[in-house]
Design goal:
seven-stranded parallel β-sheet, Rossmann fold, single chain, globular, alpha/beta
């Protein structure tokens, strides 16, 4: 009752916030008319459902979605998103035979959803376990799996008051875990329904890095034997540290700066901080001449960053000063060592990077500059690519379970 009350309250607050908050408005509008969608799924096609919170989880699930498609083209891939940012960015290029928002997790919505799609398998990617949907799956014979899952001792699943969440874990047929730490947590709490398969994102980024996607702007701008720092998914705290070093000429190399938020207000604030020659990427796309003394290109659009890393030598990935570390595997798939902020305890790949010597966590501009110079003065490409190769193969591990 308390869980359902919380869900209804959450839905009410989102609707209230939609009156002034754009993201909340998209959340509400995206789910409007959900039950009126006309969708006919042939009886000879098995529905395999993948739920992804946002873009990162979609990338994590994508290799397994592709593997199921290759195993049997008749498999009907259903993809759901909770976040508007994930849905809007991927709706036009989703591998899913049908891609939509996940309705609010009420008992009625969950029952109607499962009866509408009749999935035979459901994968919850990494996290975001919705209890009513899980109950509806088990009542209708749908097998449940956790993909690239992570567990920690401090999660609500293992608190003394979390009876329903504990029972939820038992309802899963199998968890495909990212690491031994997660396995130890489940084992110590009496669960054995898991294997350690690794993180499927490694497979995803390695495949994407092999795609031949050249960028005319970066090709023309990058100079022979020059180092390029790629700043990916930065937030104001990240930018404050980095721009200070750039303005002081302590970072003299070329810089691709890709902020997480690309709205006009944020881009304008970055422009006001920079005192070195810069240009905006969209201006260059629209015919503005590229000036060869430009030190910083501000990537003020989405969809380019993943391939911009191809032109980099070192990466700084933002988010670890508060909001959560963004994807450090993307730059590493191109052989770049990675720098990031201090708050990364929920991202085990960060510890793996640090242990392997291809990543470093910093808190101050002094630390940042020290690490930057260390990475700049040596060639880490072969070491990084070798690490990434060792970490790949999670998709094969997952699919071997079903074979």
């Amino acid at each position: 009752m308390l869980y359902n009350l919380g869900i209804y309250l959450y839905g009410g607050l989102i609707r209230l916030a939609s009156l002034w908050n754009k993201k909340a408005k998209k959340w509400v509008e995206g789910r409007a008319g959900f039950w009126n969608q006309n969708l006919e799924i042939p009886n000879d096609r098995k529905v395999i459902w993948f739920h992804c919170a946002s873009m990162g989880e979609y990338d994590q699930g994508l290799p397994v979605m592709q593997a199921f498609k290759e195993a049997d083209p008749k498999n009907f891939i259903l993809v759901t998103f909770f976040s508007p940012s994930g849905y809007e960015a991927l709706i036009s290029k989703s591998i899913g035979d049908h891609t939509c928002y996940l309705p609010l997790d009420t008992p009625r919505n969950a029952k109607k959803f499962i009866e509408k799609f009749h999935p035979t398998k459901a994968f919850f990617v990494k996290y975001e376990y919705w209890l009513n949907f899980i109950d509806a799956c088990t009542k209708n014979g749908c097998k449940l799996y956790g993909l690239s899952a992570l567990f920690r001792d401090d999660q609500r699943f293992f608190k003394w008051y979390a009876g329903r969440f504990k029972s939820m874990i038992k309802k899963f047929d199998h968890f495909f875990l990212q690491n031994e730490t997660s396995a130890s947590v489940l084992r110590s709490n009496g669960y054995e329904n898991f294997t350690i398969s690794g993180d499927t994102r490694y497979d995803r980024v390695i495949l994407r890095a092999k795609e031949d996607r050249s960028n005319e702007i970066f090709e023309k701008w990058s100079r022979v034997d020059s180092k390029i720092l790629v700043i990916g998914s930065s937030w104001p705290k990240d930018e404050q540290l980095l721009i200070s070093l750039i303005n002081k000429k302590q970072i003299e190399e070329l810089v691709i700066l890709a902020p997480h938020e690309v709205n006009t207000e944020h881009i304008s604030s970055i422009e006001k901080q920079l005192s070195v020659p810069y240009q905006k990427y969209t201006d260059l796309e629209n015919g503005v001449e590229l000036k060869m003394d430009t030190q910083v290109i501000i990537l003020n659009c989405i969809g380019v960053l993943a391939y911009a890393y191809k032109y980099g030598s070192i990466a700084y990935v933002g988010g670890a000063f508060g909001t959560g570390l963004h994807n450090i595997l993307e730059p590493a798939s191109f052989g770049l060592p990675v720098i990031f902020g201090p708050q990364h305890s929920k991202f085990p790949e960060a510890d793996d990077f640090i242990e392997a010597g291809i990543g470093s966590s910093i808190q101050t501009s002094t630390e940042l500059l020290s690490v930057y110079n260390r990475f700049k003065d040596s060639d880490f490409e072969e070491e990084v690519l070798s690490f990434m190769k060792r970490k790949s193969g999670a998709t094969d591990e997952v699919m071997s379970y079903f074979k």
